[in-house]
Amino acid sequence: MYNVLELKKSYGSTAILRDISLRIDDGEAVTIIGPSGSGKSTFLRCLNLLEEPTGGKIYFDNTLLDKDLDSKWLHQQVGMVFQKFNLFPMFTVLKNVMYAPMHVKHIPRKEAEELARDLLDRVGLSHRLDSYPSQLSGGQQQRAAIARAMAMQPKMLLFDEPTSALDPELVGEVMKVMMDLRKDGMTMAIVTHEMNFARNISDRVVFMDKGYIVEEGQPQQIFEQPQQERTQNFLRSLSLGGAFA
Q1: pLDDT tens digits, residue range 67-81?
Q2: DSSP percent split of the chain into helix, strand, coil, nearest 5
Q3: C-alpha–C-alpha distance, residues 195 and 187, integer Å
Q4: Which domains does the chain have, with CATH numbers?
Q5: What is the bridge-based pairing of β-strands 156-160 and 78-81?
Q6: Pairing status of strand 29-33 against strand 204-209
Q7: Is residue 202 within 8 Å of residue 29, measured between CB atoms?
Q8: Separation of alpha carbons 237 and 131, rounded Å
Q9: How far, rounded to the nearest angstrom, does the alpha carbon of residue 222 sit from its chain's CA centroid?
Q10: pTM
Q11: Backbone angles phi, psi at 217, to 5 degrees
Q12: Using an 8 Å Cβ cutoff, are 33 and 198 in contact?
């Protein structure tokens, strides 16, 4: 699916990503954890060409993602869910989900509406089709945003801290939708601060710090037997680890 080779990203003289290499295979759920400012979100945005890398190479399905690539093609293959929902405030929930299939993929209106209704039912919003974003809770808005990303029928979804803008009691409803997507086999890369969620949803966990991948492995290994001192210290700071063996 994705093959990232020595990815670099700098803003002027400030290096954000330093020689990141990572594979994400079809059907995998990979979570990316680490302290604020470690480059996690920038990495995710580079995967979707929302940020232009400074160096290195990114391949998606063996296609090199470079300046000559039509980014519209990539955005049909890879959907992204942001922290802030980014729903169109002037559209109802149903029209928000219908918009991209109709205007980007040129799906007929009737077919786009059927797809949108089905997706909104899957995320538990069939009763809010005619509501506007301002009339929804944060959790409902994020579930609508996930349905909107799914409406393009992507091969993969990227989630950039999808629960960080939510009140604590609303986090669970978004996580449930994501867990359901995982059970359906959706390939996902997820930047998150929710460690228990990362443990439960992941095939692999990647720990980043200061623009580097410090450590990666299966959830049990990362959370119970991390090999790197920096990973151990990070997890201890979250009260998730004691004296690691």
Answers
A1: 888 888 999 999 999
A2: 40, 25, 35
A3: 19
A4: 25-38+155-244 (3.40.50.300), 88-154 (no CATH)
A5: parallel
A6: parallel
A7: yes
A8: 41
A9: 20
A10: 0.93
A11: 175, -175
A12: yes
